[in-house]
Amino acid sequence: MRRLGAAALLLAAFAVQAAPEATEPAPVAPALPGTPVMSLLNESGLLRPLGASVAAIQSLRDSVRDTASDLVMQAMNFLGVPYRFGGNTEESGFDCSGFTRHIFENSVGLVLPRRAEEQARSAGLLDINRTELKPGDLVFFNTMKRAFSHVGIYVGDGKFIHAPRTGAAVRIEDMRQSYWASRFDGARRADLSAAATPRPATATR
Predict the structure, then answer these.
(1) Looking at the annotation, which residues are catalytic?
(2) How confident is the model at residue 192 (pLDDT cuts 50, 70, 90)?
(3) Roughly what angle, to the nearest 10 degrees, separates helices 35-44 and 66-76?
């Protein structure tokens, strides 16, 4: 049911785009993140109303694969969870680095450092050029006039999922919007193939 709820949120976001706010962009429609979501939409009959072309559907289906697909799907399950400074669980809410740490630990068994800047400098994470981004990569931004002060997870098609700020909730946004493009600080990739056996998430909604 959580996956159906996540898919419904994705479908709603796909259909509606709000205008950006003056100080921070509003969430925008995400691309559907890959095979699990595509299968879910097909099974529930929700894909047909989108009127997507075969090529577009294939592109969406191929955007996430293997372990990265599971990681992104885990992240999608928490869309709408409120932001809370210092939070690192669904019950408490998430801040940006608490969210990424929770997702990596519970989906692929990789324990990241607690703070965003520590995650950016974590040994074993590969520095990735923006042109080489793949779903599951960590993306970092300078949102507080210091390097690596914000972090999210790349989901494909230029978009990332994150816990934005106080008063907001976990959502998907477009890195190509001027707010995020001007603050992009770099990206990191974990060796997911070498990560521990994934553990199922215990939180439910």
Answers:
(1) 96, 150, 162
(2) confident
(3) 60
